Amino acid sequence: MIVDYGTGNLNSVRRGLDRLGVNSLISADPADIARADKIVMPGVGHFGTAMVNLRRLNLIDALNEAVLTKQKPILGICLGMELMARASEEGDASGLGWFDAEMVRFNMSDKQRYKIPHMGWNRIHIKKHSLLMQSIPELSEFYFVHSYYLRANNESDILNETNYEITYPSAIEKDNIFGVQYHPEKSHDAGAQLLKNFVEL
């Protein structure tokens, strides 16, 4: 199930799953979250606005019940991952708090070389064994579009790291909760493999 909380990128994620032969439902209904086997929370947009939308749609309790209590696998993509943190500088807003982490804005020394947003292809370094990374080679390239990065307070939560002037966590994992800063649905073979791995968990 793909959570619709009023942000962009839902249909490109659905098309990525369609290419794998996976039927998916886009919904903002808490009952669909309760029924789902697996949950994908994509998103492109503003952190603070997204949290307002989740509250307005009564999705926060449904997500907490599904993810924290029932331990359903969830994959957050880009903004969907960012919302899993405790807070963000974007909109000075509180997040879902599933990870002890904050989203902070890039502040580059070399602004000519390192543009904000970080947009385009970049490599990942795999930090720990994970079923999500099965058959994805070290230093695979994924597609990124973001202006904020995750500052993780628990090293053990970091699944991937990426360098863009600084080295920052580009994927996180804890138990049944997975988040990727990059866009697997736009990342060709490596991205398709990641989505396949998630579906097969």
Structure, described:
The chain is of the alpha/beta class and 201 residues long. It has a single domain, classed as Class I glutamine amidotransferase (GATase) domain (Rossmann fold, 3-Layer(aba) Sandwich), CATH 3.40.50.880. The protein is 26% helix and 29% strand. It has six helices and 14 strands. It has helices at residues 10-19, 30-35, 47-56, 60-69, 79-82, 188-199, and strands at residues 2-3, 26-27, 39-41, 74-77, 87-88, 93-94, 101-105, 118-123, 125-126, 141-146, 148-152, 158-164, 166-174, 177-180. It has a six-stranded mixed beta sheet with strand order 3-4-14-13-12-9. A hairpin with a 2-residue loop joins strand 13 (166-174) and strand 14 (177-180). The longest helix is centred in the last third of the chain and has 12 residues, at 188-199. The protein is globular and about 45 Å long. The mean pLDDT is 97.
Q: Please tell me what the overall shape is.
A: globular
> What is the subunit organization of this protein?
single chain
The percent range for helix content is 25-40%
Structural class designation:
alpha/beta
Question: How far apart, in Å, are the first and last alpha carbons?
Answer: 14 Å
Residue stretches low in confidence (pLDDT < 50, at least 5 long) are: none
Lateral strand order in the biggest sheet: 3-4-14-13-12-9
Rg on CA atoms, Å: 16 Å
CATH homology superfamily name: Class I glutamine amidotransferase (GATase) domain
Task: Please trace the helix and strand order, writing H or E for each element.
Answer: EHEHEHHEHEEEEEEEEEEH
Instruction: Count up the helices.
Output: 6
Which CATH architecture is right? 3-Layer(aba) Sandwich
The proportion of strand residues reads 25-35%
SS elements, strand count: 14
Q: What is the CATH C-level name?
A: Alpha Beta
Q: What do the pLDDT scores average to?
A: 97
What's the CATH topology name? Rossmann fold
User: How many structural units, i.e. domains?
Assistant: 1
